[in-house]
Amino acid sequence: xxxxxxxxxxxxxxxxxxxxxxxxxxxxxxxxxxxxxxxxxxxxxxxxxxxxxxxxxxxxxxxxxxxxxxxxxxxxxxxxxxxxxxxxxxxxxxxxxxxxxxxxxxxxxxxxxxxxxxxxxxxxxxxxxxxxxxxxxxxxxxxxxxxxxxxxxxxxxxxxxxxxxxxxxxxxxxxxxxxxxxxxxxxxxxxxxxxxxxxxxxxxxxxxxxxxxxxxxxxxxxxxxxxxxxxxxxxxxxxxxxxxxxxxxxxxxxxxxxxxxxxxxxxxxxxxxxxxxxxxxxxxxxxxxxxxxxxxxxxxxxxxxxxxxxxxxxxxxxxxxxxxxxxxxxx
Amino acid sequence: xxxxxxxxxxxxxxxxxxxxxxxxxxxxxxxxxxxxxxxxxxxxxxxxxxxxxxxxxxxxxxxxxxxxxxxxxxxxxxxxxxxxxxxxxxxxxxxxxxxxxxxxxxxxxxxxxxxxxxxxxxxxxxxxxxxxxxxxxxxxxxxxxxxxxxxxxxxxxxxxxxxxxxxxxxxxxxxxxxxxxxxxxxxxxxxxxxxxxxxxxxxxxxxxxxxxxxxxxxxxxxxxxxxxxxxxxxxxxxxxxxxxxxxxxxxxxxxxxxxxxxxxxxxxxxxxxxxxxxxxxxxxxxxxxxxxxxxxxxxxxxxxxxxxxxxxxxxxxxxxxxxxxxxxxxxxxxxxxxxx
Lengths: 331, 340
Description:
heterodimer; A: mainly alpha; two-stranded antiparallel ribbon; 2 strands; 1% strand; disordered C terminus; B: alpha/beta; three-stranded mixed β-sheet; elongated
């Protein structure tokens, strides 16, 4: 293996077509591994959930009962919990992440820029179990106080019904939002920095205010910013540990922010070790399959969204588009 | 050059120590988390006596332990609930159960303004955990606890979110005392809880109960003691309200006297007799009757003899109740069944 490459480096012969071909094949092989891995995962998930797929069919997706004793398994409460908590997290995290990105890239004084970037990235490096612990000991009591302090009339709304336990959908959404912010803001910041200075200069030259200039910059990099948010959504969908510690783990789908609920990743982590009979095990693996499909679907949808944004923005000729798109690709 | 000399020296050294090294034996096991503290204590103490024996134990849960034992990826398994008939039939060989220690599950609660030890009956606990009794000042609770001023607040049920032997023991007890529980919820390591929130692990449940006013949950005795959470007494078959303690748990095991089945697969929840704590259980180690690895089998039967006698003295410190002597004698007999 080493023999052909060593003289190759030493001789410094001019680059040839065959080098290109070799490089293409080598990188292509690595890329193929990724596809093979994804296919292998899908296949294994299918194979190991056979019993449950045969028994429940499509009913598995809509079934609302999860009863390991009776052997009745439905994924809907978990599917709902995963999508609802991730969506809420995105709702909270989106504006904050964009705000951070705008401040760091457009408004902050130069000497604040680096420490601020460093600190937001530091948040991303905290293990999720630590977020979970913080959630249990700090966030949940705060939410419980909020719940008990809420006026009775508001508590009657379906959004706020349920006993004031503290753990539940709201706690999970807030934890997820905090975990998503560093990812989304870091990517969004890079996107905004990639917007050429000429755009800002042009805006100011036309007499735009600071706010209007920033709006122009955001508009320019909007595909990248949307990509940054969707990257965060991807993280929220799969997050397990921190969520299971604060969501209450009750498989009952509900609109209420205060109700304890459950997610797909959490139920696998919780119940896999003790699932002794085959159907139960297969149902848990099928939950994994559902999560896999949902993640794929969300990714595909976000690609479509970005592509349609790109197509529309092509009407207005811009220079920075490729870089913002590649930031999303990299994500 | 110097390197090769070093290698030669190492090889020589290895050759010299070989007689001892050849006998080291590594044994892998996996299973229940509940007895993990005492098992790891046992394995390390045993290793001090027999440095050549290394027993690795992964506490991955009873279900996982049974699965790995059935697939023969580990030499022994461990479980908090005896294997079912179906599970035994699915295994590629005969599997034997050996009780090792005893544990208890206690109802823990956090009721603001109540300092007294609350009394519960089995059916009342079942009704609370099914959501049928949903206020602390419910007549059913008040009747058992005269003189205690109970608040009118909602009861928040806290249960385990992960599959667990603790849940199995608790559900097994409730299933025995409440036909309704048996019918609607059932007995397993995870069940479809009609109400409440789930905490992960004993520590998760203990933590939630501690910080949620008006909550009730169930944890292993040791966690309630360590975390200093209030736990109630439970009425046994003799009609006494008994507080869980090492003594009252061992008494539950002694109640099997003369009635212990030869395969040790017995539930001792709601055991009869005076002074018995009703939510008690054995925990078991699982072995194949004719294991493939004979050397490991010899080592493990020796280990079991040690654990059943000398090992029992570590129980009290770690919050487990030791086995009654009668059970130990039966197990010593049963160990002979393992073909070594």
